[in-house]
Amino acid sequence: MSIEPQSSSEFSNEALCELVKQSIPKHVAIIMDGNGRWAQSQGKPRVIGHKAGVKAVRRAVSTAREMGIGSLTLFAFSSENWRRPDKEVSLLMELFFTVLQRELKLLHKNGVRLNIIGDISRFSERLQKQIASAMAKTEDNTGLVLNVAANYGGRWDIMQAAQTLAEKVESGEMSSSQFTEEALSQHLCMQNQPEVDLMIRTGGDFRISNFVLWQAAYAELVFTDVLWPDFDEQAFKDAVAIFATRQRRFGLTGSQIETLQAEQ
């Protein structure tokens, strides 16, 4: 029996079958929350929590590689984080620069391709050069794609893509009828990567905080009370195990999905 998706579905039956049977997400996005609270709970400055969070990033990258996840996107610094105290923002920028220098060799050795997403124009010239250099060094790597969202916001991402297309329409490069969802998606960050399958938020809050809004349209959401510095290999694998138990319907009914599974 063939189950036809609704006319508004973005997926063909073949694509649905592939999505339904997968147990390991192709793309995981993580909102790394709880560094400051982790430090404060130990009577330490918030920056100590951010430094501890770097170790958790290293563990997450290692676990993602081990599990065969293709893309890992980490929310390092949102466009709203500029509202934090100036001293903390300055320390975060310096930490970002230091971590890039220190971790790049290991990432490159392990075949990881580093991709910084977001509006980096607000960063210092020194940091912008460091980002460009790091991305260039790893651009030919074929292993895990590590997307680090820095000065990133989901609304900004959609807006910058829409503005690019609007300029093309205005210049006559394309017609307004060609301004489609597919065209827009091709101008978003991570346009050549799979959409997010699993979004994890640590730290106990239940919101997505303007993170990869378009790319996570069909993502499964997992929220954990674990603070980011304590998010270890087992916590990551637990989140993926939860993902594997979810029935992903992509606009279909549960019975339609069961029929598709039975056909495999």
From TrEMBL:
The active site is at D33, N81. Mg(2+) binds at D33, E220. Binds 2 magnesium ions per subunit. Keywords: Cell shape, Cell wall biogenesis/degradation, Magnesium, Metal-binding, Peptidoglycan synthesis, Transferase. Transmembrane segments: none annotated. Its cofactor is Mg(2+). The keyword Cell wall biogenesis/degradation applies. Catalyzes the sequential condensation of isopentenyl diphosphate (IPP) with (2E,6E)-farnesyl diphosphate (E,E-FPP) to yield (2Z,6Z,10Z,14Z,18Z,22Z,26Z,30Z,34E,38E)-undecaprenyl diphosphate (di-trans,octa-cis-UPP). UPP is the precursor of glycosyl carrier lipid in the biosynthesis of bacterial cell wall polysaccharide components such as peptidoglycan and lipopolysaccharide. NCBIfam families: PRK14830.1, uppS. This is Ditrans,polycis-undecaprenyl-diphosphate synthase ((2E,6E)-farnesyl-diphosphate specific). The gene is uppS.
